[in-house]
Model the fold of this input.
Amino acid sequence: MMAWIAGCRSCAAAWSNACLLRSAALALSFSLIAVLLAGCWDRTEINDLAIVLAAGIDSPGEGKDYLLSAQVFVPRQSSGGKAGGSSETTPGGVTVVKSATGSNLAEAMIRLQTKISRHVFWGHCETVVIGENAAKRGLRQYLDFLLRYAQFREHAYVYMSEPPAREILALLPPLERSSAEALREMGNLKLGAKVTILDLAKSIEGVGQSAVLSRLRILPPEQGRDKLATMPYMRGIALFRKDAYIRTVTEPISIGVLIMLNQLENYVFTVKLGDSKGFVAIKPLQIRTTMTPRIQKGVWSMHVQVETKGDIVLNTTDLALLAPDQVKAIERLWKEKMTGIIQASIDLAQKKLKTDFYGYAAAFRRHYPKQWNASRSRWESIYPDVETSLQVKVLIMRSGKSESPQGVPEDTIIRK
Amino acid sequence: MTKSLRRSGKPLPLRRHLQEHTEPAAVHPLSSHLQDNVAALHAIYAEGSDVTFHAFQINQKIEAVLIFRSELCDTALLDRQILGPLITGIPDNLPLNADTLHRIVPVSSSKLVGTLTEASLNISSGHPILIVEGSSSALTFGLPKSEHRNVEEPTAESTLRGPREGFTESLTVNISLLRKRMKNPNFKMKSISIGQYTHTTVRLAYLEGVTDPAIVAEAMRRLSAIETDGILESEYIEEWISDQPKSPFPQMLSTERPDVVCANLLEGRFALLIDGTPFALVAPVTLFSMLQSPEDYYQHFMMSIFIRWLRYLFYFLSLVLPSAYVAITTYHQEMIPTVLLLSVAKAREEIPFPALIEALIMEIAFEALREAGVRLPKQVGAAVSIVGALIIGQAATTAGIVSAPMVIIVAITGIASFMIPRYSAGLASRLLRFPIMLLAGTLGLTGMMLGMMLIVIHLCGLRSFGVPYLSPVTPTSSSVWRDVFWRSPPGANRNQSSNHRSNRKPGMPIIARQANKR
Done:
């Protein structure tokens, strides 16, 4: 009997020991689950995301609410037949545009969320379009928001649009998946100024206190097509002093601006030859602008050197373009043309708008840090009087596939 | 009460019981009376055994009994070499006892045994026993019938270039395959018999002067500490003598290629050859040696380097690819390139499950499919691949159960795990994939890294016979790196054996493990 009790007691002890172990293991696994579950709540499936491809900022005017628009991707499985068959129809609803108003952008963003059944996800917003009216109110608030709110990418491209930004975002371009992608591709092709959010903020906050943005317009849709089935395109350059929009320049001055910013690609210069009826079109292969600041005896001057090389792509004159003299003559005319354009854009910045778009201040600060520090407060008065000397060097590399003009009788061609 | 009784109750000591029963004559020497010996052996082989007791007279004078298992002995040789001469051809003037017969029977391997245990062991191994009236020792002859498979191409480790011989189940054949390649007399072997019932012969092969003697001694110690009923495959031994049998990473390399064994011997490792299985074990190994294929050395070194890097990359992928997909698509969508995200979003739109569940479904289905393919006969195996490709690949996507990107991820993971040349090394990444996937699904990339860190910590602590598992990367011995991250052509890498011996630095302790404490 005693043995039985003793055995029972020892069994009970073993029991409680096992119990303790088991409850410890249980507690441990529960705490592990708790840790893991905490992470679990953050989970967002891709199905639950409203992926924003482009953001648009509009404002009806001073003192009124801001309108924030988001171009949201509609993840619908495109069935094979539809995509392959009819390219004539509009690409129905790959994106939708949702907008919300607010007294500031953050408020508008939160209100936008209330209109969309999924998490609005700005992490892939690679294009920001700012409407002209919104731009006039100053870019400061937008930049602060875009660079502070964690989801935005600072390398998103920024454009200014002549029509409201919302209309640009609403377009469904036939060629691309979305107008955001179209604008991104155009930026990569350098069809205008390629400016990211970070570039924009840096150029406004930098010593130059100015910025340029490409200006967008909407290509009129083809007849009989849906009015949304068209593309935005870049026309002109919008100029900003500090963070405020001042004016837009168009060709040819916008070309000069782009040359000064070292950003011109995809352009053709047309040169009219004085004595003959035709013209010659030259496509530059490379344009390089270098700025050399100089301070001598208290006189601030800037030497701008533009070097360019190009090919002739069109010739409607009777010149055979083989004789060096002919090429020299064309080069001279091209040089004159470029000098004129660039000089006009320099004059516009220095004399008319008195705003340093081309980075004079940065160049002076880099080359003459002492003088710059001594006179940085007077820069606004110094800048318009900086003597700018412009030197353009041009070189025609090739005359194209044909040496002599095509489509004219042999005997009319001028060979020397 | 009953419950606690059962808890404290000890199991019946079955093993000891059996042991006593089967070895009744553990210390009994043979007697000089023939009838006593025969009676004792008859008692051992009383029922259900098929031992032949063949009684005859030597030179028609002295009683003798030949005891053998007819299915294990070469009976034709037995008749010709033993019975024939003994019955008729012994000169009369010789004293007829076991000692004399030992010298005159024309069999090259004959031996005298003095105890009943030895006698019965020899009978079980297929060696006939001759007991002569008046002799207290018996004579055994090495005339086993060698029933074994021919040397064939190793099926689990095929190479395009390289020897096509593989080990067989016969230990003697396997040893001959090794001896054929390694002609230096320093190629030594130690023998040990393991298993109370199977008495499996295990040979430890090493190169004297190349292999660290401390490692050989430790291996012999661990082998002799094994207490088990039987050894049927190399894995039995591996689990007994590995440093950490609970680790999913194999600490011994199993191979069925004699050339691989020889290469490892040259690099200062030892090999275990086990009777009855075509798989030899090699140790000590490191993670990087598990990721090497014999073909790395049989083809141009540039190709080998490329393949080796590809293998490292895919080994990593086979471990983390599904987890990375789950983590990035559910927590870090901003990391995916925009266009790719849009495609993934399109593909995932109709899928009812979260990415984690989707990944688990697909990975488990894949593992099941793979297992089914391994077990099935070859003719049915084709059906499995059709079912796998069509049902899991095609139909599941069209039905909207899993998304196409997930199928791609699982497919790449599958290919990646097939790229690992050692089947046993791939098991770890196959298995650990699942916990990492769960961590990735609950904590995102943080969880994935957490899992990776745990694995690396585990690997850092792992040792194979005293050699750190991650050497030569950590602890670093950069002189060996040219055979880890690189495969230098011969000349640059001439002195192979010495540079591998440096895996274990002289003072490094071998972590002794009590093999009998399991």
Q: What stands out?
A: The two ends of chain A are 133 Å apart (CA to CA).
